[in-house]
Each structure stands twice: as structure tokens, then as C-alpha cells.
């Protein structure tokens, strides 16, 4: 006999702040992109080099979504060849304040996972 799912909780982003946050930065690339842009990696080719494994299409989509959600701005410079740079908006900077504790937790977690005889420093 199947259990009824009618009582299951659903957290739509319009009602739940955590669901909204996860909807905006969901996936493995967006938090990394926000962090990299905050560190000065602000051009498509630089982001692509810093994110091994991301396809050009996926990077373009993620940047477009971050721009749509007003976390990034895209500035096009009228040069030949054209140059595009990304920067964090005030909203993006406020999200960065939430992402940085995750980064710091990762630094601590990596420190415990590294073998004690290595010389790797973060």
C-alpha cells in the first residue's frame, strides 16, 4: 500500500527564504562564480580557466542567471576586440557574506582531510 504524499511539505521559494536562497544560488557553479568574481576573476575566459569541468554553455547560462537575479552586472567595453567584465552588485555582495562561511567551513574541512605529511597550504 502506497503512503499518501498529500501531507508532504513543499517549500516554494516565494514562501520560504531558504528555498529562495537555494533557488538563486542552486547548483555547483553559482557559489563558485560569485566567489571568483569577488576575487577579481571577472572575465568569461578567466572564469572558464578557474572552473575546470564547466562547459562554455553552462558558464554562459550561469552568468546570465546570476545577472537576471541581480547578483552580477555585466559591463561591455566598446573596444576591439570587445571586452566584457562582470562585477558583484550590492545584492551579490550581501550573498557573498552568506557564501563566505561556507568557504571557511570548506577550508577547515579540507585541513582535516589532507594527509599530515603534505605541504599543501591554502
UniProtKB/TrEMBL annotation:
InterPro entries: HTH_HxlR, WH-like_DNA-bd_sf, WH_DNA-bd_sf. Keywords: DNA-binding, Transcription, Transcription regulation. Transmembrane segments: none annotated. Gene3D superfamilies: Winged helix-like DNA-binding domain superfamily/Winged helix DNA-binding domain. PROSITE patterns: HTH_HXLR. Residues 16-114 form the HTH hxlR-type domain. Pfam families: HxlR (PF01638). PANTHER family: TRANSCRIPTIONAL REGULATOR, TRANSCRIPTIONAL REGULATOR, MARR FAMILY. This is Helix-turn-helix transcriptional regulator. The lineage of its organism: Bacteria, Pseudomonadati, Bacteroidota, Chitinophagia, Chitinophagales.
Amino acid at each position: 500500500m502506497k503512503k499518501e504524499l498529500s501531507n508532504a511539505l513543499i517549500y516554494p521559494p516565494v514562501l520560504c527564504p531558504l528555498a529562495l536562497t537555494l533557488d538563486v544560488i542552486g547548483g555547483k557553479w553559482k557559489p563558485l562564480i560569485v566567489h571568483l568574481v569577488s576575487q577579481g576573476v571577472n572575465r568569461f575566459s578567466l572564469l572558464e580557466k578557474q572552473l575546470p569541468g564547466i562547459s562554455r554553455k553552462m558558464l554562459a547560462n550561469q552568468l546570465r542567471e546570476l545577472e537576471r537575479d541581480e547578483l552580477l552586472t555585466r559591463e561591455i567595453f566598446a573596444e576591439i576586440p570587445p571586452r566584457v567584465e562582470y562585477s558583484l552588485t550590492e545584492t551579490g555582495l550581501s550573498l557573498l557574506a552568506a557564501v563566505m562561511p561556507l568557504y571557511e567551513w570548506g577550508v577547515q574541512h579540507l585541513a582535516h582531510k589532507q594527509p599530515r605529511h603534505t605541504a599543501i597550504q591554502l
